[in-house]
């Protein structure tokens, strides 16, 4: 029927759906997939948990009782390539989760996309730290069958998660009823609409480069990613603190007013018990410094000075 104004809520829409948090989007994805014939979900062996927030990645897996296993990662949090490729080709897995930690891309996405397609494995990209990064193959979040985002980690919104579906085969998931508690608030919606994402992306890059130059030569630490690749908009600046001093340095920085974090200082128990040595090593030594869009060069100079003082005392 011809109507005076648009009525079709499906017409000209992007294949995405908003939530209050990324974990709700992930929960919807895995509950929509049919894990039959003993097929499992493959997760990276670097997932954290806190008493306050639980585990954004693992809670949905437990809540949906999704059968799963972990694949090993290296000390830069990329998959151990040969092992991951072998697992994808084994026929034992229905879906694979790739996490783009801290906004970086730690994996050969061209190979992973190809292998997943060839072996009928659903590829899910966790872009919780990665709203604006791109690599040679395209934007992160556009390479898998599904991707999900954590908007409140990137913008000054009190909540916000987004599910994006790239494979038309799964567009029906957009029609699933809302899980009830999950609607994005008006405040978050306004922030999303008003945010200048290009400016945020360049501020984050500039801040990362500025801070990494200031701290690169400090002894006792090592940048996890010394080079900032083209297209990457980092979530924070991860570094490794040597000689078992992470805890000590973390508290000194926090006492000084530097809001450092350690993603993830506590890993979920199956990873600890699974003997994933590189994961445990990273978890024990990682420290993440703020470089978000509100941080000024004066703030970054203060962070560098505070870090230098903490390490020399
Ligand atoms: C890698 C990663 N994925 C997903 C999540 C979940 O994000 P949200 O808090 O928006 O549910 C988090 C944080 O908890 C995370 O660090």
* % residues in beta strands: 15-25%
Question: What is the ordering of alpha helices and beta strands?
Answer: EHEHEHEHEEEEEHHEEHHHEH
- Low-pLDDT runs of 5+ residues are none
What structural class results from the helix and strand content?
alpha/beta
CATH architecture of the largest domain: 3-Layer(aba) Sandwich
How would you name the oligomeric state of the polypeptide chains in this document? single chain
Bound molecules: pyridoxal-5'-phosphate
Number of strands: 12
Overall pLDDT: 95
- Report the CATH superfamily of the largest domain: Type I PLP-dependent aspartate aminotransferase-like (Major domain)
Kindly state the percentage of residues in helix: 25-40%
Strand arrangement within the widest β-sheet reads 1-9-8-5-4-2-3
What is the CATH third-level topology name of the largest domain? Aspartate Aminotransferase, domain 2
Helix count from the secondary structure assignment = 10
N→C terminal distance: 76 Å
Offer a concise description of the structure:
With 313 residues, the protein is an alpha/beta fold. The protein is built from 10 helices and 12 strands. The N and C termini lie far apart (76 Å).
